[in-house]
Amino acid sequence: MTGNPEPIDWDGLIQRDRVHGSLYTDEAIFQQELEKIWYSTWVYVGHISEVPNKNDFIKKSIGPQEVIMVRDRHDAVQLLLNRCAHRGNQVCMEHAGNRKTFTCPYHGWTFGNDGGLLGMPFPDGYKELDRSQTGLGKVARVADYKGFVFGSFADEGPTLEEHLGKGGRDALDRLVQTSPEGEVDITTGFLRHKCKANWKFLLENETDGYHPQFVHASIFNISDSAIGELYAEGTTAVARDFGHGHTENDLRPEFRKRGELLSWFGTTPDKLPGYVEKMRAAYGKEQGDEIMIDGAPHVMIFPNLFIAEIQMFVLQPLAVDETVQHVTALQFKGAPDLNKRMLRQTMGSVGPAGFLLADDNEMYERNQRGVAERRPAWNYLGRGLHREERDDNGYLIGDNTDEVTSRGIWRHYRELMEAAA
Amino acid sequence: MSAVAESQVDLELLAEVSQFLYYEARLADEHRMDDWEALWADDAIYWVPANGENSDPETQMSILHDNRSRIALRVKQLKHSKRHTQNPRSRLRRLISNIEIVEVAQDIRVEANMLVFESNMRGDTVWGARNEYTLRRSDDGFSMVRKKVVLVNNEAALYTLSFLI
């Protein structure tokens, strides 16, 4: 960013039941979002299982910034930036691997995988350089919750636990307990699906329970999918705003009504006997069965981690009108029979050729072109305002098709954007 | 791969195979879904890998990995008016070139380069790939047992690829 940005009149952009179209198209707002959201708050980066061994690394991102997630030689996870401390060349060209050091190809400066400078050729040329203060750039704070690694470029601020809040933490707890060993593995590689749309269209859509019946009508109609009814009028499923920008579609009321193990996954226990047995052994029959009825969560952790029951999406904004979704199948530790099906289902659903996501992306791109039209200048997000209420935990909830989730996202967004730089 | 030595190229077979590949390409370009689907054998695999050319589709995400029944589902969805991403349809023309017959046994393995020009509401997109085909003789020409499309940029972020590639 250059200079002081024009102060933004937020009342003129975000109101109780509507948001202004320019929030998706204004380049200056996008630049402020990078500073106030992507380079300030906690952003999901990667999963601990992607760097299982000391010295493993893998390229990730925080917004447009490339980040190297590495398990350093002391076994600590670091988030390094791919920029030599000398003259800014890139020190790592591989997507993933195992290395103790990164050597810049330009002049041979070498850094340890904790980012510290180890040495350079012809060192007699440096008398004034403070080597202890010279190293690869780092993401200031790194923390993980249940194996999900987040980074924050801000030196200070809320802890990751505070950022997730009880709602975000509970959702991730629910996710990992779908594994008989209480852990998720990210091992199946990512598809990267790009679209010409602002990242917030994706963020809002992930827990928009109003669209599936329409956007996904083609696949629901031809495949006997039972997903559509979870997002139909009169569903007992609930849209929830956890605060902190995190939102979910809580489908458990529908699954509990059905009361059938693995109905959430569209299958039956006889198809996955190994998984059922292991879950009951791990959690006891009563709790194991409860988990297998409830299923994995459908939750959007602000601003970029979307868990859609069996798959994980990571949102990456590249420009005001360009966003990449990195998507993979979740794998539950100790559940090989379930994992195989999750991969197969995920591959059909998501990515550039997916039965579901190709249509979502089509909507994002049409949305982007739509809001560039001059009138009406606002998007209306008032669905269900008259019936939203607080649940027992104090979270705002509404009908599963209500826009209580979008409103929650925008409330948090505004708080972050209004905060002093 | 090692191509069949030049001196051993069966020009008649090459011509026959080439005509089939061009036909398959044209059906896909022109969205002639039923005719295209009819080319597939019952044990078909239609595969567009991600992240290189040799990832294991049983353990790694692919852009597309369809058996015969999923090919049928894909075509059925494409024919549905609510397959929004293909309504309106992409306008397409593709070139198939550098055709090499790799193996002639019970089935015939063929490789070729492909360049697809796509135009849709987003804009124009060019897709480049190395294609591998396994063809089987049938009563009326060939059937397609396997088609693998290795996109040159399959490690990068890609726009929606919802037409028949």
Task: Describe this entry's structure for a reader.
The complex is a heterodimer of chains A (421) and B (165). Chain A has 421 residues and is of the alpha+beta class. Chain A folds into two domains: 44-145, Rieske [2Fe-2S] iron-sulphur domain (Rieske Iron-sulfur Protein), CATH 2.102.10; 169-418, Naphthalene 1,2-dioxygenase Alpha Subunit, Chain A, domain 1, CATH 3.90.380.10. Chain A is 28% helix and 25% strand. Chain A has eleven helices and 24 strands. Chain A has helices spanning 27-38, 160-176, 199-206, 212-215, 217-222, 252-258, 273-283, 285-294, 336-349, 357-371, 404-418; strands at 14-15, 18-20, 43-47, 56-62, 65-71, 77-81, 96-98, 101-103, 110-112, 117-119, 141-145, 148-152, 184-185, 191-195, 238-243, 246-250, 298-301, 305-308, 311-319, 322-329, 331-332, 378-380, 389-390, 396-399. In chain A, strands 14-20-19-18-17-16-15-24-23 form a nine-stranded antiparallel β-sheet. In chain A, helix 7 crosses helix 8. The termini of chain A are close together. By secondary structure, chain B is α+β, with helices and mostly antiparallel strands. Chain B has a single domain (9-151), classed as Nuclear Transport Factor 2, Chain: A (Roll). Chain B is 22% helix and 42% strand. Chain B is built from three helices and six strands, in the order H-H-E-E-H-E-E-E-E. Chain B has a six-stranded mixed β-sheet. In chain B, strand 3 (91-104) and strand 4 (107-119) form a beta hairpin. Chain B is globular and about 45 Å long. The model of chain B has no long low-confidence stretch (mean pLDDT 95). The chains are: A alpha+beta (421), B alpha+beta (165).
